[in-house]
Amino acid sequence: MVFDNQLVYEREGNVNSKGSYEKQPAWKRIGELSRGSKFERKEIHSAQSIIQRDGETFTIHSIENGDDPLLSGVQTLFEKTFGEEEVDPEEILRSAVEGKTPWGTQEDLKYKVFAVTNSDGEVVSTVAGGHLDLKDADGKSSEETMFMVAYAVTSPVVKKSGLAREAYISALQNTVADARGKEKKLIMSAGECTYTSEIFWNRIGWKRVYQEQGTKEKKVYSEVPYIQAALDFDEKSGLPTEDAGEAPEHLMVDPFDGRMLTKKHIISVVEAFYRWCNRWPREAFENDVAYRRHMRYVDKIFKTFKNFVDSHGEPIMLDGAGRDALRKRGMTVKEHSDADRG
């Protein structure tokens, strides 16, 4: 399949607009991913499309409403993949799509869900995430944004089919249009991964983040020790619940314009993760003391990460092949091995 970047550029119109091809580097990544697709996409400019391959037909849906019946299929896929006890209840998923928190407050950010159904209407793959502002050094929202992937899941019956890749393409199409509407620039996607899923992410442009240490004679590249903060907190104490704790993960990013990744970008990406996923609003707690204790907990984890990044060399991105190449040249590559549990 051929995805013509020039067609996208012409469709976007004003070259001075933040929505233009020049100003939105995500279009370049969308084009690259689409050219390598195994599928024929009927609507190449739309996040929602019928896709076909070898006589099989699937449909990609961009779910915009919390009452969409397809969310039940997404929830079922999550539960079959991760276990019912490991995922939020369906009502939380539906509220998030509407931009509502479990405490009834409204967020600016709505959970983006892209579901792929087969010819029988069953949800067989999904990508979900959020369009997050990247803040500057003063904590103010900048003109740059990122797409954080929270889940990329495919049913075992269609594993390695390329469906998650297609859902991800749709997610980027939807999010870059969203960025244009906000007069912002979508500069990267990012997320957490396990060592078992890294191969998939490498194939679509994502890499792990490392920083240089050592001397000129003996180079050492250490993976940034990203920690997923707790996701569940006691409303009375403000501390993580007994069954919720920190989880080491591999941080992976994909800057769309091929720029050199900076410390500022890595810090702002993780700050956005914690802001969206781990920081609860005041309404979630029974008292101010619990809320402040909760905020201090997240602040401490973020500060530890920031201090590591600030005290080491400029970050570089490495996939599996890149790490092997450095080792063959006699360099040391230290992995965030705590993330390889299980």
Structural write-up:
- The chain is of the alpha+beta class and 342 residues long.
- It folds into two domains: 1-187, Aminopeptidase, CATH 3.40.630.30; 194-342, no CATH class.
- It is 32% helix and 25% strand.
- It has helices spanning 5-12, 26-35, 70-82, 90-97, 163-181, 198-203, 263-277, 288-310, 320-328; strands at 40-41, 49-53, 56-63, 112-117, 123-135, 141-154, 185-193, 207-214, 219-223, 227-228, 247-248, 250-255, 315-318, 332-334.
- The strands form two sheets. Strands 1, 2, 3, 4, 5, 6, 7, 8, 9, 12, 13 and 14 form a twelve-stranded mixed sheet that branches. A two-stranded antiparallel sheet has the order 10-11.
- Strand 8 and strand 9 form a beta hairpin.
- Helix 7 (263-277) runs antiparallel to helix 8 (288-310).
- Mean pLDDT is 90; it is low at 1-19.
